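Throughout this chapter, every protein is written as a compact record of paired, labelled lines. An example of such a record is reproduced below:
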Amino acid sequence: MNRLLPLLLPLILQAQAAYYGSCVQGDSLANTTIGPNGNQVSCRFRATVGGPLEGIRPFIIWSFRKAGYHGGTGGILKVEIQADDGTEAHAPSGRVLASSVQRLYIVPASDQFYPLITFDRKPLLVPGTIYHAVFSNPHPQGSVNYVSVNAILTREADRPVQPTRGDEDWAMLYRNAAHPQWVPRRTAGTREAFTPIMEVYCAGGASQGIGYMELWMAAAKPVGGTAKVAETFTISGPPRRVDGVAVRVRRLKGTEPLAIRLENAAGKVLAQTSCSCALKASASGSLGGCGWLEARLPEPLTLQAGQAYRMVLASAQAGSFEAFPLRKGLDKGFTGATVFPDGHAEFNDGGGWKGWEQWGKGNRLDSDLQFYFELSGE
């Protein structure tokens, strides 16, 4: 396998470079308890950065106000970095490369949900290789003392769950005492799927993962008539040559297409396209399930380094669509490598562009639409 890595790595990096945007979808958060019923979780990842492992930052959650997130003292949080088993299932092999064991004692005043977990060793991560961060709870009363691992929940997920990552490359697996075989974490009888919220750090500052830690569905904004939403951004790094665009929205009514246009900082339209989707019932029976709309640009457009742009979503009929963003976890310790670092989501209800509103705070600049550009000529 190691002899194939020089061939695989350029393909992996090329796939990463083929997209520009948040590249993440989801509808809400969902926790998995670690301990009750023998529950264990594996956050599977294919290394895209290499070097000695410095640590990981997951989303560990408990609550003294809502039931179902934790019990008792929190138990013992055991995290192992394990090698992949090499099978088609790509499950943890049980071969431990590094370990961390922490006896928890959580209290109401504590909200350290995003700990930096370091390990007893610093195994060398090889780009292109699959690893697992396995969470378990060896407390003798693990069904009473436990915490949860939080994840992104996508209610109607296809495969791959995330649009620009293979499920082998980034996924949550699960097992318990009754079902000891590792399987992808999904809600039985539905299309709901879980995606890890986690950042992996290597020596020298390189990192990978997903650092979005909230989804603001309850703060969705309408699209149609005078109401618009947008992602405003300034290109960092090299120029990007854009061929197509994908956005995730919910159709609310009508048949009007979603218009997508790219503007420069002065508001000049550089490119525009449109796409349509039908009003359909979601798996839960409600109308207007979220979905990706994809469109090609009339011709490729090069977005220049250091220049500011705005991607605007609009529709002729009022209330045709709605969109909601993902919150970046930059204030929680996640880095710009695991979110879209170049911009933020905005809305315009007829009174001008402003940042999103959530949790009683307006003009927030810490979220991104669920979107990505398809690139060529990189």
Q: What stands out?
A: The longest strand covers residues 290-303. Confidence is low (pLDDT under 50) at residues 1-15, 281-287. The longest helix spans residues 5-17.
